[in-house]
């Protein structure tokens, strides 16, 4: 199962939408993503790792005007475990501009993660590069809560019109 998810993730990364990847050949609008808990390139506070108990960190974003929905993917590219998706949230109301700590916006749905569970799966590898990527989409995905990881990533990739990312390098 993990091998199939990894292959799907790598295929999507190579498809140009930037899901799990670093770049994007498509000309996408830019979303500004930040957190009051850490800066881009800084370590992720361990409260939001498997050592802590706070759940997901709070996030803020801007630049999603024109979107029909918003999605969030948290992933990493640990040199030890390879690509891993820690959280997928989709069908977020496009008027939403922030996500609280340990929170899911009302009406949004969560897909499965690489470990097959639904919800935030806190990262554990101290030397990973953890990416919190917000996507503006030109449609709602209308998938069920707990939708398959490959299905949600494919839906996000095919509807992305803007993207922004906040990266935590390592865990404190």
Overview of the structural elements:
- The chain has 172 residues and is α+β, with helices and mostly antiparallel strands.
- It has one domain: PEBP-like (Phosphatidylethanolamine-binding Protein).
- It is 16% helix and 31% strand.
- It has helices spanning 2-17, 149-159, and strands at 29-30, 32-34, 59-62, 69-78, 82-92, 98-99, 109-110, 129-137, 160-169.
- The strands form two sheets. A six-stranded mixed sheet has the order 1-9-8-4-5-7. Strands 2-3-6 form a three-stranded antiparallel sheet, with no helix packed on it.
- A hairpin with a 3-residue loop joins strand 4 (69-78) and strand 5.
- The chain is globular, with a radius of gyration of 14 Å.
- The N and C termini lie far apart (30 Å).
- It holds the Pfam family PBP.
- Residues 100-120 are annotated as: Disordered.
- This is Phospholipid-binding protein, PBP family.
- InterPro entries: PEBP, PEBP-like_sf, YbhB_YbcL/LppC-like.
Regions with pLDDT < 50 over 5+ consecutive residues? 3-17, 21-25
Instruction: Specify Rg, calculated over alpha carbons.
Output: 14 Å
**Assembly annotation:** single chain
User: Terminal Cα separation, in Å?
Assistant: 30 Å
Secondary structural class: alpha+beta
- Sheet with the most strands? 6 strands, mixed
> How large is the share of residues in beta strands?
25-35%
- What is the CATH homology-level superfamily? PEBP-like
CATH topology: Phosphatidylethanolamine-binding Protein
> Would you identify the CATH architecture?
Alpha-Beta Complex
Tally the structural domains: 1
**Number of beta strands:** 9
InterPro entries: PEBP, PEBP-like_sf, YbhB_YbcL/LppC-like
Region (Disordered): 100-120
Protein name: Phospholipid-binding protein, PBP family
Family: Belongs to the UPF0098 family.
